[in-house]
Amino acid sequence: DTAVSQTPKYLVTQMGNDKSIKCEQNLGHDTMYWYKQDSKKFLKIMFSYNNKELIINETVPNRFSPKSPDKAHLNLHINSLELGDSAVYFCASSQVSNGAGEAFFGQGTRLTVV
Amino acid sequence: AQSVTQPDIHITVSEGASLELRCNYSYGATPYLFWYVQSPGQGLQLLLKYFSGDTLVQGIKGFEAEFKRSQSSFNLRKPSVHWSDAAEYFCAVGTNFGNEKLTFGTGTRLTIIP
User: Fold this and answer.
1) Cis amide linkage into residue A69, ω under 30° from 0
2) Do A53 and A66 contact (CB within 8 A), yes or no?
3) B44 at the A interface (CB within 8 A)?
4) Is residue A43 within 8 angstroms of chain B, CB to CB?
5) What gap in Å lies between CA A83 and CA A81, rounded to an integer?
6) DSSP assignment, residue B96?
7) 3-state secondary structure of B29
8) How far is CA A106 from CA A32, A89, B45, B87, in A?
9) In Å, what is the CA distance from A12 to each residue of A82, B48, B68, B87?
10) pLDDT tens digits, chain B, 114 residues: what are they?
11) B104 part of contact set with chain A, CB < 8 Å
């Protein structure tokens, strides 16, 4: 069983379109994240949700809207896609409440905006 | 705010040779420290972590890392590398639980030559 799974793995779309990436974790963790990895492999957190509540929002354009319908799911919706949004987006989860802290990552979604 | 520096962008090592990847962090309190590995086209896999206690931590795949508070370092080591170790390695620092976002270094690409 995949611990953190993202769909789709690849996404190619035109500028101006709206797209969503889905993430699910079966680890029972209370916190989920979205990270963005740019073309230079630099990883930066975008959002963090704890028990469906937004905890971290790191100066991300409001075209990006995360949604957490329940603890096991965190989706990322992107409006009006721009060329600069091309990147690999990673979902992750961790159990924060007991201090374990380590994050488990999904396989990533490679988004290409053309 | 916390930060991580990985001074080496790219390291090339012969198979069977020893390896040390450098990581320096900046954080005002006791950090949570992690090493992740990313194989091409894959997600991030946790190699090892330091939360407290013994400053020499053992991880998977024969890796170890040593936390040195006086040097703000958390270097990753392996006594003998295998061709399958070729990957991108990321050091990360996490804050105390409750705000568990990870701040990543820029990564070190490891190439193994026969």
Assistant:
1) no
2) no
3) yes
4) yes
5) 7
6) S
7) coil
8) 11, 9, 9, 17
9) 12, 34, 44, 25
10) 789 999 999 999 999 999 999 999 998 777 889 999 999 888 899 999 998 888 999 999 999 999 999 999 999 999 999 999 999 999 999 876 555 688 999 999 999 999
11) yes
Which token pair is A32?
A: 């989920």
A52: left (phi over 0), alpha (psi -120 to 50) or beta: left
3-state secondary structure of B84: helix
Cα-Cα end-to-end distance for chain A = 34
How far does the CA of residue B65 sit from the closest CA of chain A (Å)?
16
Q: How far apart are CA B107 and CA B89, in angstroms?
A: 5
Test mutation, B101, B103, B106, B109, chain A, max A CBs within 10 A = B101
Tokens of A18: 């709206």
Chain A environment of B94 (Cβ under 8 Å) = 101
End-to-end CA distance of chain B: 41
* B98–A31 CB contact, under 8 Å: no
* Separation of alpha carbons A25 and A58, rounded Å: 22
Phi, psi of A44 (to 5 degrees): -140, 135
